[in-house]
Amino acid sequence: MRLMPVLCCALPLTACAAALPEADPQQAWIELYSTPGNTLMAQKLDGKKVSDGRFFQVSPGNHELRARFQFDIDNGGGTMGNPRQITCHLKVKYDFVAGQRYRLEARPAAMTTQAWLYALPRKPLKQVTVDKCGPL
Q: Is residue 128 part of a domain?
């Protein structure tokens, strides 16, 4: 009987640790990356919500990817100041190639963000457009 509460608590955590599927060589693979403590998650591909915000697999060709990047900033209030969370909405349009691996990276830059699309291994392709940023 004591095992049931432990399983109920542990089961939701397995979704975060689930392995990524194998890359389909007929599609382009786009992973998302940010430094620990920040959150970068895919939101939409060509206007449609994605099922897993950690990566995209897309058919070759031109696509529009949208992602949300969240990070904390210090309010400057010393030890009494609480950090504020900033949310930035990112957009990148690119002509993806089948079998190629890409990485969308974002990092905080004051009250906004800098984001780039890379071809792996680490070849910069395009700076990502920041639609809007702010405390949300």
A: yes
